[in-house]
C-alpha cells in the first residue's frame, strides 16, 4: 500500500483542513439547497476542483445527477491514489533508456493531466511524493516545459495580461472565477531560470511556484493565481515561431512597461486588497526596479532577489558551522560570488549586511571579504558603466586586476566559499574547482545555484572530484548525493529559494501585514539557518530534506509572522486579530500556521439529510 499520511500532519488537522475547504465551497454556492456544489452532472466531472472521478459515493451520484455517467463501482481515494502511482511507476519502467528530456516531459504530462482532471488527487500525490515530483512540476523540468510550452499547451491555467490590454485590466481581473485570491506569482517571462527570455512561455514558472505553495505552505489551490504579464519578447526564435502564443512584438521598455505593470498592480489590489504578490524571473533591471517601486505600497516581494538571498545566507552560515567554527566567524569568510544579476546582487547585499551587523561595522567595511564577478570578470572600481547595484562591491584594482577571471580570483583570494548565480552551465570547470583545493577553509563550500540542471556552474560529482571530498556542496537544481572514494557520502544540498518563499508568503498572509519588510525576510533566513542540528551540519547537510518542506514552511511562516508582530505591522487574518497574534507564543504561532494549511481530501459535496 503506497498510501500514507504525510509526516507531521494528523488526521484531525486533515479533517479541519477539509472542513475549511467545504465551507469555502459553500460560499461559492449559487443555489441554496441540499447540495454544496451548484453544478450538476457532467459539469462536475469536468471541474477538476470538484471532480472525484470514480470516487463519487452513491448518494452524491444520485443527488448530483451523476448516476450512469460513471462506472458503477465506487473506488476509494486510497485506491485512486495507488492506481495513479502505479501508472506513474509503469511510465518510469516503460521509458527506461529513453532520452532524459523525453522521460521528464512524459512525467510532467501525466501529472498535468491528473491536475486537469482531479485537483484533490493531484495535490495529494504531490504532497506525499514531493521529493519525486518537485523536480517535475518545479525546477528543473519546469524549464523544459517553458521552452516547449507552445507545443505542450492544452488548456489555460492562470491569467494573461498583455500590452494590448492596457486600460482594460481593472475589468479583466474580475474575469477570474474565484472570489478570493491569497497568493499571486507573476512573471514577465524575461529571465526564465537560466534560459533567458521565453516571453509568454514563462507562465510555467508561476504555475510551478504556486504548486509549491500548495504543497509546501498549504495554500488553498482555489486561492492561487499564476500571472503572465506579456509585454512582448526579444527572443527572435519565438518571434519567428508561427505557433508562439504570446504577443509578436519586441518587449516594451521604460515608461510604457511601467504603465502596464502599474495598471496590473492597481487592478489586483482593488479586487484582492489582502493578496500577497510574488515577483518571479524578471530580468535584473525590472526585478530591482519593480521591487523599489512597489515594496512600500503593496504586499509584494521578489523571490529571486529576496528569497534567494535568504536561502543563500542560511547556506553561508551553515558553512561556517560545518567548519566547526562559531557563527561569529562568518565575518572572516572570504566569499566569491559569480553572477551580479538579480540573484547575485541580492545575495551579496544581504550577506554583507549580515557581516556588518555581526561585526558591528559599516556595510562599506563589511564588503572587504566579498568578490563579485560578472560576465566581464571581477568587478572593480575601474569598470566603466557599472550597474549601480554592484558599485558598493567593486574592488580596488590594485588588489586584483579589473576583469580577472574566476580562476584568477580563486587562486589569488583562496576563498572559503565560491557561489555561482551566473546562469552559465559548467563555468566552475576543472581548473576552477581544483583551485578551490587551495582554499583557506578546512571545508570549502561550492554553491552552483543556477538553474536548471544544465545551467548549474558545475555538477555535484565534478565538485567533489576536483575540489576535494571535504567540501560542502549546494546546487539550485537537485543532484544525487555522491559516493566518495573514502566510502563516505558527498551530500548534495538543494540551495533553492523553495525553502523560503512558501513560508514568506504564508507567514505574511496570515499576519495580515500590508508589506514584506527586511525584518520579516531576515527572520525567515535565520529560521532556516538554525533548522539543522550541529550533527547534520557537520556532515555537510545544510538544508532540510524536501520531504519536510511543510514542516520547515510552518516554522519559516511563524518566524515571518512573529517578525511582523514585533514590527507592529500585523492586521490579522480572518477571525484572528492583531492582538490574538501578538499574544501567541512561538509554539502557538507555529500551530496557528499549521492549522491554516489546506490539505487535500475529498469533502462532501451534498449536505447529509
Ligand atoms: N537556486 C536558486 O534559488 C536561484 C534563485 C534565483 C536565481 N537562480 C539562478 O541564478 C541564475 C541567475 O539569475 P539572475 O536573476 O541573477 O540572472 P541575471 O541575468 O540577472 O544575472 C546573471 C549574471 O551573471 C553574469 N554572467 C553571465 N555570464 C557570465 C560568465 N560567463 N561569467 C560570470 N558571470 C556571468 C551576468 O553578467 C549577470 O551579472 C539563473 O540561472 C537562475 O536560475 C537560482
Ligand atoms: O525557480 C527556481 O528553481 C529557483 C529560482 O527562482 C530561479 O529563478 O532559478
Ligand atoms: Mg526565480
TrEMBL record:
Its main location: mitochondrion. GO terms for biological process: malate metabolic process. Residues 115-295 form the Malic enzyme N-terminal domain. It catalyses: (S)-malate + NAD(+) = pyruvate + CO2 + NADH. Gene3D superfamilies: Malic enzyme, N-terminal domain, NAD(P)-binding Rossmann-like Domain. A divalent metal cation binds at residues 280-281, 304. This is Malic enzyme. It comes from Eutrema salsugineum.
Amino acid at each position: 500500500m503506497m498510501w500514507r499520511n504525510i509526516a507531521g500532519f494528523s488526521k484531525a488537522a486533515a479533517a479541519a483542513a477539509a472542513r475549511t475547504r467545504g465551507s469555502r465551497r459553500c460560499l461559492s454556492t449559487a443555489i441554496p439547497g441540499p447540495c454544496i456544489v451548484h453544478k450538476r452532472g457532467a459539469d462536475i466531472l469536468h471541474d477538476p476542483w470538484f471532480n472525484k472521478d470514480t470516487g463519487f459515493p452513491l448518494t452524491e451520484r444520485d443527488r448530483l445527477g451523476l448516476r450512469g455517467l460513471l462506472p458503477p463501482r465506487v473506488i476509494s481515494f486510497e485506491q485512486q491514489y495507488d492506481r495513479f502511482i502505479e501508472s506513474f511507476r509503469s511510465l518510469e519502467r516503460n521509458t527506461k533508456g529513453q532520452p532524459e528530456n523525453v522521460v521528464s516531459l512524459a512525467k510532467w504530462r501525466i501529472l498535468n493531466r491528473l491536475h486537469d482532471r482531479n485537483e484533490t488527487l493531484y495535490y495529494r500525490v504531490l504532497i506525499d511524493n514531493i521529493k519525486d515530483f518537485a523536480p517535475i512540476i518545479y525546477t528543473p523540468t519546469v524549464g523544459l516545459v517553458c521552452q516547449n510550452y507552445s507545443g505542450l499547451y492544452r488548456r489555460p491555467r492562470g491569467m494573461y495580461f498583455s500590452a494590448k490590454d492596457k486600460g482594460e485590466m481593472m475589468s479583466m481581473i474580475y474575469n477570474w472565477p474565484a472570489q478570493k485570491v491569497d497568493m499571486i506569482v507573476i512573471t514577465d517571462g524575461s529571465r526564465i531560470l537560466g534560459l533567458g527570455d521565453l516571453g509568454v512561455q514563462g507562465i510555467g514558472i508561476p504555475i510551478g511556484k504556486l504548486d509549491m505553495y500548495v504543497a509546501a505552505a498549504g495554500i488553498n489551490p482555489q486561492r492561487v493565481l499564476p500571472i503572465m504579464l506579456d509585454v512582448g519578447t526579444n527572443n527572435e526564435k519565438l518571434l519567428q515561431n508561427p505557433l508562439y502564443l504570446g504577443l509578436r512584438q519586441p518587449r516594451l521598455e521604460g515608461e510604457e512597461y511601467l504603465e502596464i505593470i502599474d495598471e496590473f498592480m492597481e487592478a489586483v489590489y482593488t479586487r484582492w486588497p489582502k493578496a500577497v504578490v510574488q515577483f518571479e524571473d524578471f530580468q535584473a533591471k525590472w526585478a530591482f526596479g519593480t521591487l523599489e517601486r512597489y515594496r512600500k505600497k503593496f504586499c509584494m516581494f521578489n523571490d529571486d532577489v529576496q528569497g534567494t538571498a535568504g536561502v543563500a545566507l542560511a547556506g553561508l552560515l551553515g558553512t561556517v558551522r560545518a567548519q566547526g567554527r562559531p557563527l561569529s566567524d562568518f565575518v572572516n569568510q572570504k566569499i566569491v560570488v559569480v553572477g551580479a544579476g538579480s540573484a547575485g546582487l541580492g545575495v551579496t547585499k544581504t550577506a554583507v549586511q549580515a557581516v556588518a551587523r555581526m561585526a558591528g561595522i559599516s556595510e562599506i567595511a563589511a564588503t572587504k571579504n566579498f568578490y563579485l564577478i560578472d560576465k566581464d570578470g571581477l568587478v572593480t572600481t575601474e569598470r566603466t558603466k557599472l550597474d549601480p547595484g554592484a558599485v558598493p562591491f567593486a574592488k580596488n584594482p590594485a588588489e586584483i586586476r579589473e576583469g580577472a577571471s574566476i580562476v584568477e580570483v580563486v587562486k589569488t583570494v583562496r576563498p572559503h566559499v565560491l557561489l555561482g548565480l551566473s546562469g552559465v552551465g559548467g563555468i566552475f570547470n576543472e581548473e576552477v574547482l581544483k583551485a578551490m583545493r587551495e582554499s583557506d577553509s578546512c571545508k570549502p563550500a561550492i554553491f552552483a545555484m543556477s538553474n536548471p540542471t544544465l545551467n548549474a556552474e558545475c555538477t555535484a560529482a565534478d565538485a567533489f572530484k576536483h575540489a576535494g571530498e571535504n567540501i560542502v556542496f549546494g546546487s539550485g537544481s537537485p543532484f544525487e548525493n555522491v559516493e566518495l572514494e573514502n566510502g563516505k557520502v558527498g551530500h548534495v544540498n538543494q540551495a533553492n529559494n523553495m525553502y523560503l518563499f512558501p513560508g514568506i508568503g504564508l507567514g505574511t498572509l496570515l499576519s495580515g501585514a500590508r508589506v514584506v519588510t527586511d525584518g520579516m525576510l531576515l527572520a525567515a533566513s535565520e529560521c532556516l539557518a538554525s533548522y539543522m542540528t550541529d550533527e547534520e551540519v557537520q556532515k555537510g547537510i545544510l538544508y532540510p530534506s524536501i520531504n519536510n518542506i511543510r514542516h520547515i514552511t510552518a516554522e519559516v511562516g511563524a518566524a515571518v509572522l512573529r517578525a511582523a508582530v514585533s514590527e507592529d505591522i500585523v492586521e490579522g487574518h480572518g477571525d484572528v486579530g492583531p492582538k490574538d497574534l501578538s499574544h501567541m507564543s512561538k509554539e502557538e504561532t507555529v500551530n496557528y500556521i499549521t492549522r491554516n494549511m489546506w490539505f487535500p481530501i475529498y469533502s462532501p459535496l451534498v449536505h447529509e439529510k
